[in-house]
Every structure is written in C-alpha cells, then in structure tokens.
Amino acid sequence: GSVVASYPYDDSPTHKPTGVYSKSADDEVFKYLAKAYASHHPIMRTGKPNCPGEEGETFPDGITNGAQWYDVEGGMQDYNYVWANCFEITLELSCCKYPPTSELQKEWENNRESLLAFIEKV
Hints:
Order of helices and strands: EHEHHEH
Number of helices: 4
Strand order of the largest sheet: 2-1-3
Number of strands: 3
Shape: globular
Number of domains: 1
Radius of gyration: 14 Å
CATH topology: Aminopeptidase
Helix content: 25-40%
Largest sheet: 3 strands, mixed
CATH architecture: 3-Layer(aba) Sandwich
CATH class: Alpha Beta
C-alpha cells in the first residue's frame, strides 16, 4: 500500500514496469479529480507517505499517473474508462492493506474531508 491518488492510464504501450507516463485523452480532468482528493488529505497532500520499506517514495501533490508509478495491465480503472466511459481514480489510503481496528477512526478522520471534496466534484 501507499497513500496516493492514482489516475489512468495504469497500463502503457511499452509495458515497462515503471516510469512511463501513460496519458489519457482526459488527463487534465483525472489530475484535477486526483488533486481534489489528495489536497484535503493530511498525509497524501504532502506527497511523502513514508511507508515502511518505501520511505523515499514521493508523489508530487500526492498524485501519480498509474503507469508512471508501476505498470498494471488489465486494471479496473483503465477498463472502466475505455469500455464504460467511467472516470475512475484509484485511492491508496494506507501503507497497511488491513489497518488494525484501533486505527480506523484515524483513517476516517484523514479521509473525511477528501471524500466530501471529491463527491462535490460530481
């Protein structure tokens, strides 16, 4: 896991594992939506999630193009965008895939304003 808002495309024509910006026709809209979420999240907006084992990983403005981060062939956000005209971003909300119950209230507090800001964009 990480703490970042990722947007299409997750896949790239070269299928290099990482580092290839795979721009969609609606790239600016996706960046706008990802920033709307990330800018209200106290950790995500820093662009430095500081996840164990990935302490040096950074994401400017707390967002990333999926394929630039790592290439995912056949991902759901790309499928929905291409085949259903559904604008979808992927939100990585925690360094831990399954946070303990004791941390859920803090996760809610970290994400509440981001969720509201994102919903307002609809």
